[in-house]
Amino acid sequence: MTPPSPSSPPPPPAPYPSPPRHPWGRFFGHLLGAYGLLALTALLFLAFSLALPGTFPTLDNVSAVLSGQSIPAMLALGATIPIATGKFDLSIGYGLGLAHVMTMQLVVAEGWPWPLACLVVVLGGAAVGAVNGVVVEFAKIDSFIATLGTGSIMYAFTGWITDGARIVPGPHGLPDAFTALYDSRFLGLPVSAFYVLALTAVLWLVLERLPLGRYLYVIGSNARAADLVGIPSRRYVIYAFTGSGLVVGIAGVLLAAQQQTGNPSVGMDYLLPAFVGALLGSTAIRPGRANALGTLVAVTVLAVGLAGIGQLGARFWVTPLFNGSTLLLAVGLAGYAARRQLRQRRTQPSRTPRQPPGATP
């Protein structure tokens, strides 16, 4: 072995290893990061139950909360899919308004059978989502700008269809089977809550257990690395936006069954709560990445908080204040969770590769 030449720089000093954390500290830190939001939900419910013992911890109140928050929960789950790839779909509020107006237009004004109208609207939502994905990936437009532009176009179509007025059913109203999609009950609870649970289970299966979900997470973590390992990023990002549009179409049908009128301006009211739930959900269950169970927990926190402050007599401006503040908190916590996860990966000791047979040390 030849000695180093005098002109060669000295080797850098070896970094001092970071002191190992106690295993109990890591364990409790993981529990707090993964299930802290779930514990907060229980604490909020307990606090409001003690403050409002006659109205809050009742089956009627729970049913009202579940029914009123089902649409925001579905939109939050739909927004979670593109977020897993590092993209954002700001058109979901406009898409919800267009989907529910189209449902009312086809059933009331055009006289279509309601199952056919619902099917067309849901498939149309998926098609709009695919268009969003194509615009983002092939036109190379940032997802914020692209989906805001397509959302504005959808809002224009909504106004053109309704001419700025509401779509009101005739004297016979809507078919009972159609309104039962939202108004019926199962096991004593609103059936819409079980739609949310079913959608959460499907998204959890797709994102956590199927190759499609793993590909989406790899793309969201490092799109360049995904391309290098052979994952077609463009195709899977389009799949993510298509899934988001499909969920928005389903939510639009349910919103039409709930409100039973076509309101062209209703969709934007759901945009902020949906993103609050999706971003806050990325700090729970699987901190650092968007996940279906975390989104469900986050939406539950928001539902309990809004119901509690509403029954305490809060003014009308408290709800947007609560949503906006929670959104800022959610973004901050999501960024912190992602940075914490990255630091943990960097501080993990690397495995020494095994020597091939016959190699000399």
UniProtKB/TrEMBL annotation:
UniProt cross-references to CDD domains, sorted A to Z: TM_PBP1_transp_AraH_like
Lineage, opening ranks: Bacteria, Bacillati, Actinomycetota, Actinomycetes, Kitasatosporales
Organism superkingdom: Bacteria
UniProt cross-references to InterPro entries, sorted A to Z: ABC_transp_permease (IPR001851)
Location relative to the cell: Cell membrane
Region (Disordered): 342-361
Signal peptide stretch: none
Protein name: Sugar ABC transporter permease
Transmembrane segments: 31-52, 64-84, 114-136, 143-161, 186-207, 236-256, 268-285, 292-310, 316-338
The organism of origin for this protein: Streptomyces hiroshimensis
Keyword terms, alphabetized: Cell inner membrane, Cell membrane, Membrane, Transmembrane, Transmembrane helix, Transport
Membrane-related topology note: Multi-pass membrane protein
